[in-house]
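User: Please predict the structure of the protein below. I'd like the answer in structure-token form so I can feed it into my own downstream comparison script.

Assistant: Understood. Taking the following sequence of 310 residues as input:
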Amino acid sequence: MPIISISKLSKTYKSGFTALRDIDLAIQRGEIFALLGPNGAGKSTLINIVCGIVTPSSGTVSVAGHDIAVDYRAARRAIGLVPQELTTDAFETVLNTVSFSRGLFGLRPDPAHIERILRALSLWDKRDSRLMTLSGGMKRRVLIAKALSHEPRVLFLDEPTAGVDVELRQDMWRLVRDLRQQGVTVILTTHYIEEAEEMADRIGVIRRGEIILVEEKAALMRKLGRKQLTLQLQQPIDAVPTDLADYELALVGDGRELVYTYDTRAERTGITGLLTGLAAAGIRFSDLHTEQSSLEDIFVGLVREEGARA
């Protein structure tokens, strides 16, 4: 059973703006799920609905088996949220504000747990410092510590590394990996491709309030290992010769180009055999080039394609 189940979720504001359209999404226990999309795509709206901050127009959401509308308190108890905004209690100390966050969920004090979190985030030496004296990066660490104070089963990171230093980014990813080892499910929103590539088990792409792709990162990475060889023919042909059918060639450009897709990580690419077969079939080419898609290319292509449909 997924730890988060979202069905037919939509959100339209009073202004008439539709932020989400019929979102269906299931997130499994213990996975790291990255939600990619440009600014304004609906990433934060989706997170805020799951966390009970924004009310949906229609659809259902359950977290750890609890419907967010029917059993709000239990659902919210399972969630830790690290928002984009650096809103903190300026005059409070690091230790007190993190400990207080735990108490908000009705949990007994656990100094050892709070210390573990602060040490993991390099905040222990700052535990008695007032938040107003901290740098932006340190304040971001405090937000993460607050989100983890009540030992949530699901952690949302909304644009977690926007404007943070490299050291914090590395600390954060180390912590995320540790949390996954402990069975915590982590959902992060980002428009940084490399974050998804570095951390995620699965990647979802959202565009104009609609999920346009959900795929395992490994499957996407297999696509990254595929290259296309394009041969520009001296003379156009009407069809690919049957003797070359095994290469699954695509005939494009009014018969003037042949495109061969192959796996760069395979023992044999098949290119030598293909060129031999073309020569035997009497097909000559004047030029050739290869190209390889990156995760960035896939993402940009999807977004552009969806934008063209709108």
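That's the full token string. The two ends are 34 Å apart (CA to CA).
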